[in-house]
Amino acid sequence: MTKFVRQLQFLLFLLPILVIYSLFTIFPLVKAFFLSFTNFNGYSKVFDFVGMKNYVRIFADDAIISAISYTLFFTFAKALLVTVLAIPLAMILDQKFFTRNLHRAIFFFPSIPSGLLLAYIWGFILAPMGSGVFNTILKGLFNIGPQPWLADPLLAKLSTIVVATWAITGWHAVLYLAFLQSIPKDYYEAASIDGANRLQQIRFITLPLLAPAMTISIMLLITGGLKVFEIPFALTKGGPGFETYSITQVIMLRGISETQYGLASAMSVVFFLIVLAIAVFQVTVMQRREQSMQ
Amino acid sequence: MTKSNKRLWILDVLMLPAGIIAFFPFYLIIINTFKTMQDAAKKPLSLPSKWIFTNYVQVFEETSILRSFGNSLTITIFAVLLIVLIGAMGAYPVVFNMGRFSRFATIYLLAGFMIPFQATLIPLFQLMSDLHLIDKLYGLIILYMSGSVFVFFLMSGYMKTIPRELSEAAVIDGCSVWGIFWRIILPLLKPITITSVIFQTMWIWNDFLAPMLFLNSSSKSTLVLEIYKAKGEFTVNWPMFMTLTVITLVPIFLFFIFMQKHIVKGIAAGAVKG
């Protein structure tokens, strides 16, 4: 009897999280899956099952295709850039130089404010006119005429990636720093006694021991990158054309603005599957790499 | 000067330009808040030809930044408190009473861990309007409570390090299930609670997508939403817009200064656990 009451009390502790999670995460996902096979428009109670039609339409929709390709490009380019920059930055910030703490703070701070705010600040720097800050600098230093940083398809894509990289590199450097500091100092002492130079030490001690950090960092970069919305939205509004449309933005456009719930739901399901597939693939591959390196 | 000292001094010199470039965007917006529109447009890079402070006065007079600040504060405080409480509560039976049902609950919660908010956006929008939660601050707070799943995993990972004997001894002393949680478990969770609070605070304070979708009336704007709306209003008046941005950065900066140690520890803890 008392055991039963205790179990019931324990159950009460789980109840809030299960209710919230079921209602706001699982139920909408299941419903998105269901709606993706219908022509529901958000208002009328009557709607039909249209089979795979919405899924077929995804691949005929220029904005959606553009959003998928931009989001994937953004995700991988940013993940690559941040990783290449954050690891050396972490190694430098691990040294005891005088302005170390100041530099840690400077690089880390951009990861604290909202991405929307940061993108607006950069919008001023990348303004296309001759008076734009970056164009003024280019004119002064190299006498190059004004460039349309946010209006040219390729430049706009690269600009969003640069801003996102600037914002998050310091955060990932701190993550690597935490792992660097857990490497025992005797490894390096032993290696230098054996005659290994600094580069060899990095190659054979530091990088292999950072492998688990890379798995986590890249996983966060990829899942975060696929969910990108604010930075391109605030910098370019998704333009020029659909060139910097993120998947999130196209789901909102087709779903909420145009009330094509069926199509947008199909897009959501595809998005979920992309996130799942890439994340599972990446973690599996990188964990295997960790084992082979140790 | 010893050899190692010299090398470190070189690092200072080498890192200086990198630091300046990283900080440059912030320098730029700060100096331009003290300029007139013409001055900012003509010479965006240089210091103001004449320092003016009217932009700051104007922002407080012409925008509802203080009300938005209050809205953001209300939403963040209530949502974060509820998220952390619900997450910790859920982890408690799963770690200390591993029955069949709690095992099922863990798997059920884990299954949805990868689901991005965006993938559920369309039905969520419908659900929120069916429940009459659109354009209500508490509607957004309820929506954010789904963040408790992340806290649940942080908490249950940490709780496993608490010896079971503690709760078993309390049971013998006649402590109730709720009493054990409140008086013994919760105080021991302090470090992971701080980590959870920081991550959830940053997410909710900075969020733009949910407020944009679920808050319509301007009296309910969050700070980030206020910035978004102001961008449309002050398209030509950059100094004014930047002043608004700088003012909204002040609380974030203070948060950063006071929490820096905990944020860094939190990233390390989350990463090593993850």
Summed up, what is this model?
The complex is a heterodimer of chains A (294) and B (274). With 294 residues, chain A is mainly alpha-helical.
Explain this structure:
The complex is a heterodimer of chains A (294) and B (274). Chain A has 294 residues and is an all-alpha fold. Chain A has 2 domains: 25-60 and 260-293, no CATH class; 71-245, MetI-like (MetI-like fold, Orthogonal Bundle). Chain A contains 13 helices and no strands. Chain B has a single domain, classed as MetI-like fold. Helix content of chain B is 77%, strand content 0%. Chain B contains 14 helices and no strands. Classes of the chains: A mainly alpha (294), B mainly alpha (274). At the A-B interface, α1, α4, α5, α6 and α7 of A face α1, α4, α5, α6 and α8 of B.
Fill in the CATH topology of chain B: MetI-like fold
- Binned strand content of chain B: under 5%
The number of domains of chain A is 2
- Beta strands of chain B, count: 0
Number of domains of chain B: 1
**If you compute it from the alpha carbons, what radius of gyration of chain A comes out, rounded to the nearest whole angstrom?**
24 Å
Question: In the CATH classification, which architecture of the largest domain in chain A applies?
Answer: Orthogonal Bundle
Give the ordered list of helices and strands of chain A: HHHHHHHHHHHHH
CATH architecture of chain B: Orthogonal Bundle
Structural class of chain B: mainly alpha
User: Overall pLDDT of chain B, averaged?
Assistant: 88
Which descriptor suits the 3D outline of chain A?
globular
DSSP summary: helix tally of chain B = 14
Subcellular location (chain B): Cell membrane
Organism (chain B): Cohnella herbarum
Pfam family, one (chain B): BPD_transp_1
GO biological process, one term (chain B): transmembrane transport
